[in-house]
Design a protein that fits this description.
It comes from Methyloprofundus sedimenti. Its main location: cytoplasm. By secondary structure, this protein is α/β, with parallel strands linked by helices. It has 18 helices and 27 strands. The longest helix is centred in the C-terminal third of the chain and has 22 residues. Strand 16 and strand 17 form a beta hairpin. It folds into two domains: 234 residues, Aminohydrolase, N-terminal nucleophile (Ntn) domain (Glutamine Phosphoribosylpyrophosphate, subunit 1, domain 1); 341 residues, Glucose-6-phosphate isomerase like protein, domain 1 (Rossmann fold), CATH 3.40.50.10490. The structure holds 6-O-phosphono-alpha-D-glucopyranose. The site of 6-O-phosphono-alpha-D-glucopyranose has 15 residues, from helix 9.
């Protein structure tokens, strides 16, 4: 799970590739590299760290070329180092960049070593460069050499391939990893994601699984997995290059937190006619599918898993819809029992998370008849693998810590609760109430964003802390989990979430003045129980920060700081209460001076297992 970009043009591609890499850094950022062919030679530069370091190196020692490939890495095989950074080169002739994992790399490495190939890295990728070189011994065609090579590869790959003997050919292919071709005038580009290429084109071809393409300045030929020439449609992207700018915010994460009212409004738009949710919003045959399902199985990872947990409460509570949920990486390897009539719902911002995709395929293998993806990227693998789709329309999310994708997922899931719930126990009155509340959400979120300054001051209490506990009950337990995840991801403070009722079974032993306890307390049927849990912590000297519905009267307590949250209907409260937790994590991270948008060791889109 890395980012690749490449291009063939009648101009110098180096600045285009560098800009593309910067836009792909969310996929990994421990090292970066770039290679071009010029004067019948491969020119390559690689550097540890972010793309900026590579850019500085190239500024000091520049080169140019009309054909090139580049890569930003998130280490899987081999530590972050210059040697392990891509592009990888074989015998100064073949250069490649790779996103994915080659599972049989050890066997290939052994064979190639016996053939006399020298390895300069610990990566699984280098075998691909050697194999292409090897194949070129028996053909002059780079395309044919790559076609032969991929026959030997097991695992996932998106590749960009160059040969110094062919300055007018860039080969690309994909299996299990994303890849788009950007179509220009007399020029073509490749990238892991459209965002990388928006400064040069808005016209894209999305390669299908198993496709391989030969790009020259004036021609593009695509072969499908059966080696047949195919035409893939060119799609016009509505994204603008500045959709991925910071627009004056200090960090993408802050920008994305503030974009939530708009992203939610976009996600709701066009789904209702006369205040009635339309089944067709999920796909043309959605009504038929929803009529026949008996239960729901949710699969997701990370933040998306947390939105699924909230949905499970909603489905059961509001619709009496039986619902199971699994972390995708667990589901794919256990022996789940899939009941007849189960709708498999995957949730993913990127639509490329390897575990989520594999879990969906596993569910299908086990006989799941219908699948629905809730996703933010229209052309993603998950969307293409699913029968029904409900797009969140959050726009590009760049900050590694997910924010607007989460709240738009919750909105999309509430739409699912309505669509399926009304076929179970959801009353017309409740459906109307939810509809009205959803349309009020952008306004409520604007209101809660007003307490940003208060949260910024509060965050100072966390800067010196090493641990934090997050508590919630019911639908707000997953919100506490999401708050803890945000804090640990970007501030590196160890944070755990507990359902507040579980405190007495262990975590109470941890309570002291050094561990802040963050509690999410909307005004719902669990409030009185939660108040008792708060007392249990306070009585033991614990320091509590309680996000409390403004309409609740609370007794003064020196151990408890109250942050008032504007009153909202319980139906939508989880979507509102997560906002202050996002802001809290953000401000703590800024105070601690961490890399907010690109926290250490993480990546936004995890396309490897
Ligand atoms: C990574 C990201 C998380 C994200 C998770 C699932 O771990 O850092 O922010 O929640 O992947 O990603 P998805 O794209 O499937 O929602």
């Amino acid at each position: 799970m890395c980012g690749i970009v490449g291009g063939i043009a009648q101009r110098n591609v180096v600045p285009i590739l560098i800009e593309g890499l910067k836009r792909l850094e969310y996929r990994g950022y421990d090292s970066a590299g770039l290679a071009v062919i010029a004067d019948n030679k491969i020119h390559r530069q690689r550097e540890i760290g972010k793309v900026k370091s590579l850019e500085n190196l190239l500024a000091a020692d520049p080169f140019a070329g009309n054909i090139g490939i580049a890569h930003t890495r998130w280490a899987t095989h081999g530590k972050p180092s210059t040697q392990n950074a891509h592009p990888h080169i074989c015998n100064n002739k073949v250069a490649i960049v790779h996103n994915g994992i080659i599972e049989n790399h050890q066997a290939l490495r052994n064979t190639q070593k016996a053939q006399g190939y020298k390895f300069t890295s610990e990566t699984d990728t280098e075998v691909i460069a050697h194999q292409i070189y090897h194949e070129l011994e028996s053909t002059n065609s780079l395309l044919q050499a790559v076609k032969n090579t991929i026959q030997h590869l097991e695992g996932a790959y998106a590749l960009g391939v160059l040969s110094k003997d062919d300055e007018n050919t860039l080969i690309t292919c994909r299996k299990g990893s994303p890849l788009v071709i950007g179509v220009g005038i007399g020029e073509y580009f490749i990238a892991s994601d459209v965002a990388a290429l928006l400064p040069v084109t808005q016209r894209f071809i999305f390669l299908e699984e198993g496709d391989i393409a030969e790009l020259k300045t004036h021609s593009l030929i695509i072969y499908d997995k059966d080696d047949q020439i195919v035409q893939r449609p060119i799609k016009e992207s509505s994204l603008k290059a500045d959709a991925v700018d910071k627009s004056g915010y200090r960090h993408y994460m802050l920008k994305e937190i503030y974009e939530q009212p708009n992203a939610i409004a976009e996600t709701l738009e066009g789904r209702f006619i006369d205040n009635k949710l339309q089944d067709v919003a999920f796909g043309h045959n959605a009504a038929e599918v929803f009529d026949s399902i008996k239960s729901i199985q949710i699969l997701a990872c990370g933040t998306s898993y947390h939105s699924g947990l909230v949905a499970k409460y909603w489905l059961e509570e509001l619709g009496h819809v039986p619902c199971n949920i699994d972390v995708a990486s667990e589901y794919r390897y256990r022996e789940p029992v899939l009941a007849d009539g189960t709708l498999v719902v995957t949730i993913s911002q990127s639509g490329e998370t390897a575990d989520t995709l594999a879990a969906l395929l596993e569910a299908k293998r086990r006989g799941a008849l219908y699948s629905l993806a809730i996703c933010n990227v229209p052309e993603s693998s998950l969307v293409r693998e699913s029968d029904l789709v409900l797009m969140t329309r959050a726009g590009p999310e760049i900050g590694v810590a997910s924010t607007k994708a989460f709240t738009t997922q919750l909105v999309a899931l509430m739409l699912l609760v309505m669509a399926v719930g009304k076929r179970f126990a959801l009353s017309k009155e409740k459906e109307a109430e939810i509809t009205a509340e959803l349309f009020q959400l952008p306004r409520h979120i604007e209101d809660v964003l007003q307490i940003d300054d208060e949260i910024k001051i509060l965050s100072e209490q966390f800067a010196e802390k090493n641990h934090a506990l997050f508590l919630g009950r019911g639908t707000h337990y997953p919100i506490a989990m999401e708050g803890a995840l945000k804090l640990k991801e970007i501030s590196y403070i160890h944070a755990e979430a507990y359902p507040a009722g579980e405190l007495k079974h262990g975590p109470l032993a941890l309570i002291d003045a050094e561990m802040p306890v963050v509690t999410v307390a909307p005004n719902n049927h669990l409030l009185e129980k939660l108040k008792s849990n708060i007392q249990e912590v306070s009585a033991r000297g614990g320091q509590l920060i309680v996000f409390l519905d403004e309409s609740i009267v609370s007794e003064p307590d020196e151990n408890v700081q109250i942050v008032r949250i504007p009153k909202v209907n319980n139906l939508i409260a989880p979507i509102v209460y997560v906002i202050p937790l996002q802001l809290l994590a953000y401000h703590v991270a800024v105070l601690k001076g961490t890399d907010v948008d690109q926290p250490r060791n993480l990546a936004k889109s995890v396309t490897v297992e």
